[in-house]
Amino acid sequence: MIPDNIILVGFMATGKSHVGRIISRLTGRRMTDLDEEIVRRARKPIHQIFSDEGEIVFRAMERHAAMTLCEGGNKVIAAGGGAFVQELTRQVLLENGIVFCLTATSETIHYRITRGSPSAAVRPMLAGGDPLERIRDLLDERAPAYAQAHHAVATDDRTPEQVADEVLRIFETTVTATAQA
């Protein structure tokens, strides 16, 4: 039997949380944002966890949160941009739902992060140097991990509602095909 969680992964600013909330509203599934859960448990923002304790501690917190959030099924889970890159966290997510990697070009991601505010400064993985170049480097580095998702859905030039509809269409097709096999 295929796990029935809908899991959204991908780089920052590809719309995982926004699309997840739309899917939750459309399906009645409980929506959980992995980063928000980590912040709740740690009682401090992610950039402070990175600053105070480092990325290794953050990734361990992320893996533990992923394991507990996947329990029970019938959820929409939005994972942080680097969660799926970590092998153990990736395995947990792949085994507990249908994983959709939301994608966008580096230029789209840069635009989404920097429009209207200098929010790139609060993104720990973009600290230091040119944010667009850092986005390109990280996308290249993470591409092999993101390619392991069950499905990929491009978000460039699409509304979050259009992306949610596409994810749900693919999810329903996958579940139906699996049930008939």
What does the model show?
55% of the residues lie in helices and 13% in strands. By secondary structure, the protein is α/β, with parallel strands linked by helices. It has one domain (6-175): P-loop containing nucleotide triphosphate hydrolases (Rossmann fold). The protein has a 5-stranded parallel beta sheet. Helix 2 (34-42) crosses helix 4. It is globular.
Shape: globular
Distance between the termini: 11 Å
Total count of strands = 5
Average residue-wise pLDDT? 90
Family: Belongs to the shikimate kinase family.
Keywords: Amino-acid biosynthesis, Aromatic amino acid biosynthesis, ATP-binding, Kinase, Nucleotide-binding, Transferase
InterPro entries: P-loop_NTPase (IPR027417), Shikimate/glucono_kinase (IPR031322), Shikimate_kinase/TSH1 (IPR000623)
Protein name: Shikimate kinase
TL;DR of this structure?
The protein is an alpha/beta fold. Helices cover 55% and strands 13% of the residues. The protein has helices spanning 16-27, 34-42, 46-53, 55-70, 87-95, 106-114, 131-146, 160-180, and strands at 6-10, 30-33, 75-78, 98-103, 151-154.
Could you list some keywords that capture this structure?
181 residues; alpha/beta; Rossmann fold; 8 helices; 55% helix; 13% strand; globular; P-loop_NTPase
Topology record:
Layout: E1 6-10, H1 16-27, E2 30-33, H2 34-42, H3 46-53, H4 55-70, E3 75-78, H5 87-95, E4 98-103, H6 106-114, H7 131-146, E5 151-154, H8 160-180
Helix pairs in contact: 1-8, 2-4, 3-4, 4-5, 6-7
